[in-house]
Amino acid sequence: MKIAVYDEKIGSERLTADELAAIGPLHLSAAERVEGVSGRAVDFLQWYAAWRSRHGAEGQPMPKRLGVRAADEFEASVPWAQLERALLLYRQEDGQPLKKGYPLRLYVPDGSSDCLNVKSVVQIRFLYEGDPQEGADYGFRNQISPDQLRKREAK
Ligand SMILES: Nc1nc2c(c(=O)[nH]1)N[C@H]1C(S)=C(S)[C@@H](COP(=O)(O)O)O[C@H]1N2
Ligand SMILES: [Mo]
């Protein structure tokens, strides 16, 4: 399964979890940062710096938020300041693909909520819009409210 990495300024690509993880210079065991969690992970901020230079984009402005979307359409949007110790978990400790959260899981140890630890990430987006003071956000965004449905029907 491929993961789409999108950046409106820098470009986009689709990578497997292993291809994506291989870009990151700092590999660690998730247990080093998240209690009760094991598996092979890469440090997110160092991964991002390597991804930028891979696209020749060192001089571009930094994103304000990280947006991730999961296979089940769960989504999270995390202010950059909460990503200090964030991880991308890509394999189990035994080297097998993730049994839970396949193909990739985000962990945000400094995040405002455990709900930001998005399982089964299939899309990663770097966001430049938004108030940096605004908090993290998560949930199933695809759900259509009765109000939206009425508007659709009216079209
Ligand atoms: N893809 C996906 N990731 C998700 C969720 C979800 O519904 N779908 N729930 C979130 C919420 S609300 C919590 S509290 C944690 C729960 O993680 P756990 O299953 O490891 O306990 O996963 C988060 N990641
Ligand atoms: Mo949650």
Automatic annotation (TrEMBL):
The record's section on InterPro entries has: OxRdtase_Mopterin-bd_sf
- What SUPFAM superfamilies does the entry give? Oxidoreductase molybdopterin-binding domain (SSF56524)
UniProt cross-references to Gene3D superfamilies, sorted A to Z:
Oxidoreductase, molybdopterin-binding domain
What protein name does the entry list? Answer: Oxidoreductase molybdopterin-binding domain-containing protein
